[in-house]
Amino acid sequence: MYLHCVRSSMATTKTRSAPVLIKKYGNRRLYDSSNSQYVNLDDIAGLVREGKQVQVVDAKTGQDLTRVTLTQIITEDAREKQTGLPLELLRQLIVASDEVRQEFVMWYLKSAFDTYQKVQDSVQSRLGEVQSAILSPVDMMKKFLGAAAPNPPQAEVEPELDALRKRIAELEARLTKPARGKQPLRRKQKGRV
Predict the structure, then answer these.
(1) 190 vs 184, 187, 193, CA distance in Å?
(2) Helices and strands of the chain, counted as H and E runs
């Protein structure tokens, strides 16, 4: 879940669409002002998974609560599924309380996820190539053979075909004629020696 959310959030930074504005009220209710409806954390997670950019703000102060809300989604998911970040990483995040260490850890995580995203994109690209090759083997063979052996001119092909046809006819004629000078073999009869 966590990797999926990070991957999706990285994808949204690429698309740069207008963010879905979610207002958080004092009673902890979340209101999607873009779609004029109340939402919950699962709805927000769904928006992120769809690749939409989400911004959560306090309804009174306008303070940005996006980071806190996304972290809450991750912790809620980890509580339900017993997944999430490894304990040692969580401990290191707590230890990295000063700003410099925390920035380094965040930079490291972002770099790791960026690398992960590049690998995923590369794998998806390769899968697309394989899929197109599977769906169109004739086109693939044309590309493969087209680059390897250009088609000879038609004028050169016809004399070669005629010569091959003549040679095949000669070989067939030899097979149908009995061998000269040789007589068919006789079978030995039983009882005679």
Answers:
(1) 19, 9, 8
(2) 7, 4
Measured between alpha carbons, how far is 120 from 114 in angstroms, rounded to an integer?
10
Shared-domain flag, residues 93 and 18? no
Total domains, the chain: 2
Name every residue whose Cβ is closer than 8 Å to that of residue 129 and which is 6 or more positions away in sequence. Answer: none
Instruction: Tell me the pLDDT tens digit for each residue of 127-174.
Output: 887 776 676 666 766 777 776 555 555 666 678 888 888 988 888 888
The answer to whether residues 54 and 19 touch, using CB atoms and an 8 Å cutoff, is yes
Please check whether residue 96 lies inside any domain of the structure.
yes
Are 54 and 76 found together in one domain? yes
pLDDT (tens digit per residue) in 2-56: 444 444 444 444 445 788 999 999 888 999 988 899 999 999 999 998 889 999 9
Q: Does the global pTM surpass 0.90? A: no
Range of the structural domain that residue 76 is part of: 1-84
Distance CA 162, CA 181 (A): 32
Is 2 found in the same domain as 78? yes
